[in-house]
Amino acid sequence: MGFIKRENKKFDYKPRYYKGDSNPYQVKHKFDEYRTTVGKRKSLKGKFNAAFDEFKDSGYKLNKTIVIIALVLTLIFLFIIDFDLTIFFPKK
């Protein structure tokens, strides 16, 4: 029953033949310098605002092929479940 808390030993490894300036074992995402949501500590609202601004500036475009495929699959599904499309057209 020790009352003295032991601290974890720190291991500082330096490669013998590495001539770089930074640590080669540093874990960092390769797109972090291009993101606005990473870095400074922000509030939750600030993070959401920054994410929405980044999304607006990204130039997101709708892919026509995916939209066509989704429409075709929806029509096939409606045909399989025998959905009656005449409810959308006015009666004469």
Question: What does this protein structure show overall?
Answer:
The chain has helices at 44-57, 64-80. By secondary structure, it is mostly helical. The longest helix has 17 residues, at 64-80.
Rg, alpha carbons: 28 Å
SSE pattern, N- to C-terminal? HH
- Average pLDDT, to the nearest integer? 77
- The low-confidence parts are none
- Please report the total strand number as a whole number: 0
What quaternary form is this? Answer: single chain
Strand-residue fraction?
under 5%
Structural class: mainly alpha
Q: Tell me about the biggest sheet?
A: none
What is the count of DSSP helices, taking H or I runs of 4+ residues? Answer: 2
Broad shape: elongated
End-to-end Cα distance: 90 Å
Helix content: 25-40%
Question: Helix and strand layout, with pairings?
Answer:
Layout: H1 44-57, H2 64-80
Q: Quick recap of the structure?
A:
The protein has two helices and no strands.
Distinctive features:
about 90 residues
